[in-house]
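Section 3.1: Structural characterization of target chains.
Under the original work plan, the team committed to producing a structural model for every single-chain target entering the pipeline before any wet-lab resources were allocated. The record below documents one such target. The sequence was received from the expression subgroup and is listed exactly as submitted; it comprises 54 residues.
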Amino acid sequence: MRSSVLYFLIAVSGMVFGAEIVASHITQSIVLLISAYHMLYNILSLLLLVISHR
């Protein structure tokens, strides 16, 4: 996988993470908060993939 694609996926995942964090605070939803932290785990996994790709 090319690194530009990985960086794009990290950026999109970061935007989704931010949107879910904001939505969870507005609605006080635990489910959205858990989903946001799951997205953060996905972002960290993608970052490790970028590091290992080098």
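The radius of gyration is 13 Å.
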